[in-house]
Amino acid sequence: MSENSTARDALPIRFRAPLLGLVMAIGICAITPFNNIYLQATPLGGGHFPLAPFFVFLLLSLLVYLLGKIHSSLQILTGVELLIVWMQMVIGSGIAYTGLARTFLINLTAPYHYATLGNRWQQTLHPLLPPALSPTDPESIELLYTGIPGGRGMGWFELAGQIPWVDWLKPLLLWSVFIFLSYGVMICLVNLISRQWIHNERMNFPLLKVPQTISSALDNNEFGALFFNKFLIAGISLPVFLHLINGLSVYYPTIPPIPTLLLAAPYIAESGLLVGFSKLKLYFYPAFIGFAFLTSRQISFSFWFFFLIGGLFFGVLNLLGYSIPQSELGITFGPTLTRPEEMQMIGAYGVFFLFLVWLARHHLLTVTKQSFLLMPPSAVRSEWFDVRLSFWGLFLGGAGIIAWYVWLGMNVVTAGLLVGAFFMISLVAARIICQGGLAYFTLTAAPMDGLIALFGTKLFAGTGGLLAGMSQKALFVDLRESLMPSLVHGRSIHQNRQPAFILFGSLVLTILLSTVASVVAMMLLCYRFGIRELQLEWANRTTLAVFENINRLISAPVESGTWVFIFALIGALIMLVLVVCYHRLYWWPIHPIGYLTAYSSAMRILWVSFFIGWACNALCMRYGGIHLFRKLQFFFIGLIIGDFLMGGGWAIVGLYTGTSYKVLPD
User: Fold this and answer.
1) Is there a contact between 105 and 134 (Cβ–Cβ < 8 Å)?
2) Closest to 347 in 3D by CA, of 599, 99, 147, 123
3) Is the pTM of this model over 0.85?
4) Hey, what long-range contacts does 492-496 have (CB within 8 A, 24 or more apart)?
5) Treating both helix axes as pointing N-terminal to C-terminal, what angle do 601-623 and 625-657 enclose, rounded to 10 degrees?
6) Is the bond preceding 499 in cis, omega lying within 30 degrees of 0?
7) pLDDT per residue as tens digits for the range 608-646
8) If DSSP codes are grouped into helix, strand and coil, which group holds residue 263?
9) DSSP-based three-state secondary structure for 261
10) Which of 28, 120, 238, 558 has its CA 20 to 30 A from that of 623?
11) What per-residue string of b and e applies to 206-245 under the rule 16 or more CB within 10 Å gives b?
């Protein structure tokens, strides 16, 4: 790092940066539902490296560079300040879509709107649903699904005046208590463990590599040299050409597209050793190849390796004559959980969480002693705020969520176990995403699945099951976008930045206002067009599945079969072996987090990209060493920049044409 860069890092962040980040985050939250749902364009806010924030970051970087070239006094933002702006946009965009808003309104109204004589929800679910938890006026709910008459011809402000806010006020206020308490616990948890992950373990953050490279180049007056680097230009050119041809093909069908998806299923037998790959698809995403190259080789290898091993496991069982019925699963809430064999993840997640706690044992013991005034506080603090406040905030926030559940009718033991499971899974998922460089991630088994497997369905009898299912769907199961990984990334970027109070305050304000903006934007969109007319098939389908499972928990509970316990135990044992070998054997080539993604739907899309990225990294280091790596990394950074540039470009085109070409997975 140059002296100039070090000096820039030491400078305090000016107020304009967090203010701009806040405004941009709210803007992204306002436009994301319209773009993603109504236009069906490339998602602006999707995954943990969302399109819109990075596209805006690139444009702002270019603008700052050009203004600085005109006159040095016109440098309105430094590279570090642009990182702050980008991080706030990332946090906002994670709330704007799948992270909360995409299913939130359907989650609140589905028990009433989709109640029929056939499903008997009126008899089973309605008596258990606290009246304050959902709007109860049938007309307000019906208009949400059909749209306000004449709403399409109204202006947005006129439409806002027609929404029945009175009927929504109580449910929104009640849910806001749960949401903001959960976000508060996440902030305290990240603040508590950040020293361990960032300082003690020196954890790598692959998803931060590209924006940090651009930020550093801007502060070191090397922005022009970066973007004229021949490797970077080559990397950008490949996805630009690919998506230019494929994008034009959408608008002009006579232009043949370049395939980025290959179906391998026709070449695989429906029985035998490869039966687990009967639906195999090969996706090619240049950006994810870039992320895989920048990720540790041990981790990128583990992702695709365990995906293939997981598929072969089904084949081995098939050859041995085991055909385990899906009914063994019982009642499950996992977003992609389809086979009992995948319940290995329950045991694996639990053991890996204990491994993280064991790694942090000295740090956690120190924090505990400081919180009980048995030790003086650390002389130097790098966290957002005192870790003692994090410690007590974590417990008070958790107690607040438990009290919220108990007040609405859940058993206190169930509430305690549920809250613990929620944040345990969230912490492990944050580690996987941040350390693994996974811009796209999904859970296999939901937190409730683990509790049902361990304690049975009686744990969620009555109102408790309904509250657990609805709250889990709101924040803790659709982790393709979630707040905690973004908070970990934000904590890394804010490291040693001043003024800490303004940076943390702007982050909290971004979370609060982004939540409000996202929900309001979604309500405006739904009341204008009606949920029935919008492309919300995934949101409707997955939310209905939650209430169907809740209904089964209440009316006809089915316990998990013996195979679920067997596979959960197998998962725990495999993870125990992996973490011991990883920690004790310096030559061990496999990272435990790879096993945690073996059955994730995200890895079905990303495994090819991680294989290619790993292979390029391994060949580079073997035959060219670190010297070649330092040059070649710019090619893979270019792949990421090119993919997101084209994604942003086609998203803008889609705003005007009504049809858009999708660059990235939804």
Assistant:
1) no
2) 599
3) yes
4) 492/194, 492/198, 492/205, 492/208, 493/83, 493/84, 493/87, 493/208, 494/84, 494/87, 494/384, 495/198, 495/382, 496/9, 496/382
5) 140
6) yes
7) 999 999 999 999 999 999 999 999 999 999 999 999 999
8) strand
9) strand
10) 238
11) bbbbbbbbbbbbbbbebbeebbebebbeebbebbbebbbe
From 146, 156, 144, 162, select the one nearest 34 (Cα to Cα): 156
Q: ∠ CA 126-131-134 to the nearest 5 degrees?
A: 85
Pairwise CA distance, residues 184 & 188, whole Å: 6
Of 226, 232, 289, 208, which is closest to residue 634 (Cα–Cα)? 232
> Which DSSP letter does residue 222 get?
-
Confidence at residue 324, expressed as pLDDT on a 0 to 100 scale: 86
Q: How far is the CA of 383 from the CAs of 99, 111, 222, 372, 656, in angstroms?
A: 25, 43, 30, 19, 44
The count of C-alpha atoms lying within 13 angstroms of the C-alpha of 386, restricted to the half-sphere facing its C-beta, is: 10
Question: Strand pairing partners for 281?
Answer: 263
The Cα 452–Cα 458 span in angstroms is: 8
Could you report how far apart the first and last alpha carbons of the chain are, in Å?
A: 37
**Sequence-ordered list of residues with C-beta below 8 angstroms from that of 150, at least 6 positions apart, any chain:** none
Alpha-carbon separation of residue 226 from 13, 221, 291, 638 (angstroms): 24, 10, 18, 10
Q: What residue type is 370 in one-letter code?
A: Q
Q: How many Å apart are CA 415 and CA 421, to the nearest integer?
A: 10
- The answer to whether the CB of 48 falls within 8 A of the CB of 486 is yes
Reading the block at residue 488, the tokens are 């970990």
Instruction: Judge contact between 289 and 639, C-beta under 8 A.
Output: yes
Non-local CB neighbours of 616 within 8 Å, separated by 6+ positions: 289, 293, 632, 636
Strand, coil or helix: what is 598? coil
* Regions of the chain where pLDDT drops below 70: 1-10, 666
Where does residue 379 rank: exposed (0-12), middle (13-18), buried (19+ CB within 10 A)? exposed
Q: Name 206's Cβ contacts closer than 8 Å, sequence gap at least 6.
A: 291, 294, 295, 296, 435, 436, 437
Q: Distance (Å, rounded) from C-alpha 450 to C-alpha 452?
A: 5
Residue corresponding to tokens 């953050």:
205
The pair of structure tokens assigned to 636 is 């893979």
Contacts of 249 (CB under 8 A, 6+ apart): 255, 256, 257
Question: Does residue 356 contact residue 431 with C-beta atoms inside 8 Å?
Answer: yes
Half-sphere exposure of residue 89: CA atoms within 13 angstroms, side-chain side: 30
pLDDT at 8: 54
Contact criterion met (CB below 8 Å) for 477 and 446: yes
- Short-list 356, 379, 496, CA closest to 427: 356
